[in-house]
Amino acid sequence: MGSPLDRLFSAPSDLGSLLAKLPAIAKSTDAIEDHTAQLEDVAKSIERVASDTAVLPEVRDALEKVDRRMAEIEKAMPVLVDVQKHLVVLPETMQRLDVGIEGLSELIERMLSSIDQLGETIEGLNESVKPMGRLANRLPGKAKKEGKES
After folding, report:
1. In tens digits, what is the pLDDT along the chain, a chain of 150 residues?
2. Where are the domains of the chain?
3. Which of 148, 146, 123, 147 is nearest to 136 (CA)?
4. Which residues are CB-neighbours of 60 under 8 A, at least 6 positions away?
5. Neighbours of 92 (CB within 10 A)
6. How many other C-beta atoms lie within 10 A of the C-beta of residue 27?
7. Are 131 and 14 spatial neighbours (Cβ–Cβ below 8 Å)?
8. Global pTM?
9. Which residues fall within 8 angstroms of residue 10, CB to CB, at 6 or more apart?
10. Phi, psi of 79 (to 5 degrees)
């Protein structure tokens, strides 16, 4: 580890190295802020999509009920033609659901990309901060303070 004097004399060179890394740390911090701001918008969009698609199980159940009822109507009455008029809008509804699901997929892809970028930024920041930790461990008086706290 070295004597306290060795640590004292090596601190200025480590401090210079650390100060040289401060612009990279600031840049990484700005990138984290940008990515985090994007994630908030993505999260809000996903919440809206989740709310919109929450009815899908109900739609599926409703469609199953309609199928059963249609079979009964077909057997019981010739009113089926009238019911078919109402079913004409079903393809349009299904198309809107498909568009919603495509939009959700795009949002998830954007979110994953943002998460990847955030991970890379955090990893870079972590690497940039490691010398600070080593420098902090070398500062005079650290051993005395740790001994008093224990």
Report:
1. 566 656 655 555 666 777 788 888 888 888 888 878 888 888 888 888 888 888 888 888 988 999 998 788 768 766 667 677 778 887 888 888 888 889 889 999 999 999 999 999 999 988 888 888 888 888 887 655 555 544
2. 4-128
3. 146
4. none
5. 9
6. 14
7. yes
8. 0.32
9. 2, 138
10. -75, 0
